[in-house]
Write a structure and sequence with these properties.
- The chain has 334 residues and is α+β, with helices and mostly antiparallel strands.
- It has helices at residues 10-16, 36-53, 64-73, 89-97, 120-125, 132-137, 161-172, 188-201, 214-218, 232-239, 263-268, 270-278, 283-295, 300-310, 312-315, 321-332; strands at 26-33, 55-62, 79-84, 101-106, 113-119, 143-144, 147-154, 180-183, 207-211, 221-223, 257-262.
- Helix 1 (10-16) runs parallel beside helix 2 and helix 2 packs across helix 16.
- Keywords: Signal.
- One of its GO terms (molecular function) is transmembrane transporter activity.
Length: 334
């Protein structure tokens, strides 16, 4: 199915090609976060930085809090390709203020996306279902599979932050008054399973989901419009709080997702840093790549191989002609 692994051959390529590590970039560490989109980005970065910019890059395990802390306190790793900054905003702000961290650019250009969704085939049949008013009016089209006397809204699993925000919006939108019951799917697998089962059978489904994810890459879903726009202040001060007593409806604001580097890396390798500032995926692009990963049971290294071999239309926009030529030669030598 695959050519020789890009990532497995990185060290050999770096050692034997004219693109081997040089003083302007040198040894760098890239955080390989423990979710698919971030792992894909980390492996793509390693290939491009090694073969296009003469770096000697390696991946190390990472996660949001420990990685950001280590970058501030120890100056390593050099790059966190996909940092959801809402979770560690105060820490990131401190690192930037102390000139230890640099925000390179948006790794997800659309930001992390959250919302209440319905299948597109339902909206195609009845466009009003793209609005919360239409959903409430036609609540009986969404029967609870366990009790069809009530309608089903699939919320976030217990313990997730979106359980709070989703629950508060369920209340603010008065969905219970419309006949809906808030269902806890129990886990991420339970939530995705409920959606995929409904979609494969052409059934109704209404609930919370987020992007980029494989599910939204595989299934054509429509985000329901609350008719409110985004009220950032309401969202941050009440919707996200467990003690929000009188929530007001608002659409979910995008979650900023950035590539973060140490200032040391930005200074010693300005050309490589400029690449990390340009490297960005839309949610539609990432959804599709994640769906490919799931369908092919691929990890980050094979996803990077697929991406580099088949999506030059995307990555070539992040580099200049000289770097592109080096990357194409590296790909040809695999």
């Amino acid at each position: 199915m695959y050519k020789k692994s890009i990532v497995a051959g990185l060290m050999t390529l770096a050692a034997t090609s004219s693109f081997a590590a040089n003083d302007s970039c040198g040894k760098i560490q890239i955080a390989d976060m423990n979710w698919n989109s971030a792992s894909l980005m980390a492996n793509v970065d390693m290939f491009i930085l090694n073969n296009g910019f003469g770096c000697d890059a390696e991946l190390i395990p990472g996660d949001t809090m420990p990685t950001s802390t280590s970058m501030i306190e120890k100056g390593q790793p050099d790059i966190a390709p996909e940092m959801w900054t809402n979770a560690v905003q105060a820490l990131i702000d401190r690192g930037v203020a102390e000139k230890r961290l640099s925000i390179a650019g948006r790794s997800l250009s659309d930001g992390g996306e959250e919302g209440f969704w319905v299948p597109k085939y339902m909206v195609d049949k009845d466009p009003s279902l793209a609005t919360i008013a239409g959903i409430k009016k036609h609540a009986k089209q969404f029967p609870n599979p366990e009790d069809d006397s009530v309608s089903a809204f699939y919320g976030c699993p217990a313990g997730w932050g979106c359980q709070i925000s989703g629950g508060n919006l369920f209340k603010a939108l008065k969905l219970e008054d419309a006949g809906f019951e808030l269902i806890d799917p129990g886990s991420a697998a339970g939530l995705s399973g409920s959606l995929s089962r409904a979609y494969e059978r052409g059934n109704a489904w209404f609930g919370y989901y987020w992007a980029p994810t494989a599910i939204l890459g595989k299934y054509d879903m429509v985000k329901v419009d609350f008719g409110t726009g985004v009220d950032q202040k309401e969202y941050m001060s009440c919707i996200t709080k467990i003690d929000c007593l009188e929530p007001k409806a608002t659409m979910f604001p995008p979650s900023p997702v950035y590539s973060v580097t140490t200032t040391g890396f930005a200074k010693k390798a300005p050309a490589a840093y400029a690449y990390t500032a340009k490297r960005s995926f839309t949610n539609a692009q990432m959804n599709s790549l994640l769906a490919w990963m799931e369908d092919n049971q691929a990890d980050g290294q094979y996803a990077a191989e697929n991406f580099m071999l088949n999506h030059a239309d995307i990555w070539s926009k992040w580099v200049n002609k000289d770097v592109k030529a080096k990357l194409e030669k590296a790909l040809d030598n695999l």
